[in-house]
Amino acid sequence: MDDPVDHQRRDLIGAAATVAVMAALPTTGNAVSKEAQLSDIPAFRSAGVLKPLPFDAAKLSGISERLIRSHWENNYGGTVKALVTIKQHFADSLANQDTPPFVYNELKREHLLRTGSVVLHELYFENLGGDGEADATTRQRLADEFGSFDTWETEFRRIGIGLGGGSGWVMLGYNLHTGRLENYWMADHAHGAAASVPLLVMDMYEHAYQMDYGAAAPKYIDAFFRNIQWDLVASRFSRWPRR
Question: What is the pTM of this model?
Answer without folding.
Answer: 0.83
